[in-house]
Design a protein that fits this description.
This protein is of the alpha/beta class. The chain has two domains: 331 residues, Glycosidases (TIM Barrel), CATH 3.20.20.80; 78 residues, Sandwich (Immunoglobulin-like), CATH 2.60.40. It contains 13 helices and 15 strands. The strands form three sheets. A seven-stranded parallel β-sheet has the order 5-4-3-2-1-7-6. Strands 8-9-10-15-12 form a five-stranded antiparallel β-sheet. It has a three-stranded antiparallel β-sheet with strand order 11-14-13, with no helix packed on it. Helix 6 packs parallel to helix 8 and helix 6 runs parallel beside helix 13.
């Protein structure tokens, strides 16, 4: 059906549009606009996810998976790997209550969560029929995944599973040794090529390597099948790569198709790859692990990082980054079209550190007034047309005053604002026009240690 518009109203709309900034004249579009896959529409608007690294490693307060290596946290009291594995005999989280974790997270604005179901130490957090290291063998079949899934659903968070297809403890009958195809079965170094100049992997014909991998692939596929068929709808699968030589065929397209067959509406990241290989699959980019982008990344992307020293629980003396840091990082990522996935590690008894709840409390208060600047928004014209990060929704810019030293913002090549208000108080923010630019100057008394957001409508 064709709809006609009166000429007068059409001309009025053109005149109105000419006074607006470019980003407000047309729908904002994330740089690149190329998605790696058919990503689900919930992912980008969700903005903020909670990463949860947990397992037997928490008993020793040592890094998950990597704590198996002699030169990690040296002198490492849980090396050789048999000592690390033995931590599972003491892992018995009697106070495990993910309902409490995720209730606090939901109030703080987290929209999805990603739990470690199996890291590269091979410990399965559910009673898997595959492998010989997990809750089936060590906790009488207790399932640590299901309570998490139920808590996510109860509190409205999307359900995410982290699964690392690498398993350094895998050593069934006929297997060369645990950690194969790594060259060093004693786990002396996490990076032997860099430290000793020796290759990471065994010297073996490709055909023979592939034969071993086919056996290993059946194990991985079996566990993935369990995760994607036992717990109802799973919203996100967070792969973490293979520690195998790049000449081995990982059956990437086959696995991606298989996962989507089991869970048609799932989101997958881009890490079903060799650790040193090219990323060509998945729905979104995860290159920005614990580092900031220097330029605006194209397409859909997510930044993950550890908040309390390590990925997993690192003991009572581990210092966590403050809530102000998490909010600043979230705002910066959103200004460039990304999601933020900060990580916390529960204690061995299943409780979260008190610092987690303190951070959630601060974030909850901030979200009460400024959540509108984070969720269901598009990236803004930063730094090209603003010296503060900007998120956009329709004809509104949200200008984020992040650093303590930034007490004004210059918006370049813009029209005349209809209004400028501080989200936290609703108070009008003074502004002045300088040619094609607008200068925002909030009152000094209006600034707080957290992100102060000014809503500018055009």
């Amino acid at each position: 059906m064709i709809t006609t518009i009166p000429r007068r109203r059409f001309l009025q709309s053109l005149a109105a549009g000419a006074c607006l900034p470019l980003a407000a004249q047309q729908p904002a579009e994330r740089a690149g606009a190329v998605r790696k896959g058919n990503i689900q529409p919930w992912f980008h608007p969700a903005a903020l996810g909670l990463f949860i690294h947990w397992g037997p490693c928490s008993v020793g307060g040592i890094e998950i998976g990597w704590g198996m290596f002699k030169d990690v946290d040296a002198p490492n009291p849980y090396w050789p790997p048999q000592k690390y594995r033995a931590l599972a005999d003491r892992f018995d989280p009697q106070n495990y209550d993910p309902d409490k974790w995720l209730a606090a997270a939901a109030h703080a604005g987290f929209k999805y969560a990603v739990l470690i179901t199996r890291h590269c130490d091979g410990y399965a957090m559910w009673p898997s029929e595959y492998g010989d290291f997990g809750t089936k063998q060590k906790m009488k079949g207790r399932d640590l995944v299901r309570p998490y899934v139920e808590a996510c659903r109860k509190h409205g968070l999307k359900v995410g599973f982290y699964y690392c297809p690498t398993d350094w403890t895998y050593s069934p009958k006929g297997w060369p040794y645990a950690g194969f195809p790594r060259r060093d079965p004693d786990f002396n170094s996490a990076n032997p090529l860099k430290k000793f100049g020796t290759p990471n992997y065994v010297d073996m014909p490709q055909a023979e390597l592939q034969r071993y991998f086919e056996q290993y692939y059946a194990y991985v596929k079996g566990q993935v099948t369990e995760l994607l068929t036992r717990f109802g709808k799973v919203d996100l699968l967070w792969w973490d790569g293979y520690d195998w030589p790049t000449e081995v065929d990982l059956h990437g397209p086959e696995m991606e198709e298989y996962v989507r067959k089991l869970q048609p509406a799932i989101v997958q990241n881009d890490r079903y790859v060799h650790w040193h290989g090219k990323k060509s699959q998945g729905d979104y980019n995860t290159d920005l692990e614990a580092r900031d982008p220097s330029t605006r990344p194209p397409g859909d992307w997510e930044q993950c990082e550890q908040i309390c020293v390590g990925w997993s629980y690192r003991g009572p003396k581990a210092v966590c980054k403050p809530a102000s840091y998490l909010i600043e990082r979230l705002a910066r990522d959103r200004a460039w079209g990304g999601n933020y996935l900060p990580d916390f590690g529960p204690l061995p008894d299943g409780t979260m550190p008190s610092s987690f709840y303190a951070i959630c409390t601060e974030m909850t208060e901030w979200m009460k007034h400024s959540a509108v600047s984070i969720y269901d928004v598009e990236s803004g014209p930063y730094p090209d047309r603003s010296d503060c990060p900007v998120t956009v929704k329709g004809d509104t810019w949200f200008v984020h005053f992040l650093t303590p030293n930034q007490r004004s913002a210059t918006l370049k090549n813009v029209g005349t604002p209809k209004s400028a208000t501080l989200l936290r108080t609703g108070k009008a923010v003074p502004w002045s026009k300088e040619g094609d630019d607008v200068l925002l100057v909030p009152a000094q008394s209006d600034f707080t240690p957290l992100d102060d957001v000014v809503r500018v409508t055009w």
